[in-house]
């Protein structure tokens, strides 16, 4: 099965007793028609985590002595934190819910649109209501930090000890600050001729100062990464471990005891009355089979902190219904758009021929 509109009208002969029949799909059948799947709703879960890496500066021990900087750490560390958890329902084919639309003579159900994996999207129209929103943005890649040695003078680089290098670097930072003050006060020996040139000079001096300060304060680099998980609920879930999270390692597997558990709970809201097995057996699925989805409350949490909470539609918590074959006979042109996430009807219009 391919994405797009399958035009079968040219293959059909015209006769008086036309109708569209839907039957259960059996492997190996070679029937004239379109076989489709109803979806089951899977949760696509994206954990957005931020990694922070701190590297102490080469002159961190002299930060207070030469620059009066207090609280400067000499210990490197790497730390993770969860920024956000996104939960999105997506449709995946339910291989136990496959049906064939048999296209008989003079039927008007000549256009059937499927997703790439065979889920029914539309009949006699193009489904514009279920268009995707595009790919997820990629994880942010940190920019390479500035190399402070690029801004060291020859005197600093030729110093015979770390203590002397720290002293000379601190003096260079003070010189840069004096130059900035002179420029902003209009007292510099070589003042720029216009405001734009002044901005460029000040930006260069700020960049030099920030680079040299890294030698005392250290550098902090943050990087955002995304971890993707999937969950296919078949019923209520009561505080199940979804994944584990470590401040040192980030997101790890549910069975990795190096991290603390992050849980998921799901409660079927029973918004759609469920048919009994006997009722399902008696129901004749003569027509285009679709879903009436139910809803469930989903929570992703750790302790008292809730990373996600919301109510989402689910195909598997609803019922199957049919669109009568009379809607697709020679007297009526019916256009239907289906939700490929839940199998529900999004829009239906019918015109008399």
Describe the protein in words.
- With 353 residues, the protein is of the alpha+beta class.
- It has helices spanning 63-67, 154-157, 162-185, 195-217, 277-282, and strands at residues 4-7, 20-24, 33-55, 77-103, 111-114, 120-123, 219-231, 237-246, 250-252, 260-268, 287-302, 305-324, 332-338, 345-352.
- The strands form three sheets. The protein has a five-stranded antiparallel β-sheet, with no helix packed on it.
- The two termini are 30 Å apart.
- Mean pLDDT is 82; it is low at 1-21 and 23-30.
Helical fraction: 10-25%
Low-confidence parts: 1-21, 23-30
Q: Strand-residue fraction?
A: 35-45%
Strand order of the largest sheet: 1-5-6-13-14
What is the residue-averaged pLDDT?
82
Count of individual beta strands:
14
Largest sheet: 5 strands, antiparallel
Multimeric state of these chains?
single chain
Task: Give, in order, the helices and strands.
Answer: EEEHEEEHHHEEEEHEEEE
Net shape: elongated
Which secondary-structure class do the elements indicate?
A: alpha+beta
Distance between the termini: 30 Å
List the helices and strands and how they pair.
Layout: E1 4-7, E2 20-24, E3 33-55, H1 63-67, E4 77-103, E5 111-114, E6 120-123, H2 154-157, H3 162-185, H4 195-217, E7 219-231, E8 237-246, E9 250-252, E10 260-268, H5 277-282, E11 287-302, E12 305-324, E13 332-338, E14 345-352
Antiparallel strand pairs: 1-5, 2-4, 3-4, 3-7, 5-6, 6-13, 8-9, 8-10, 10-11, 11-12, 13-14
Provide a compact summary of the structure:
This protein is of the alpha+beta class. It is built from five helices and 14 strands.
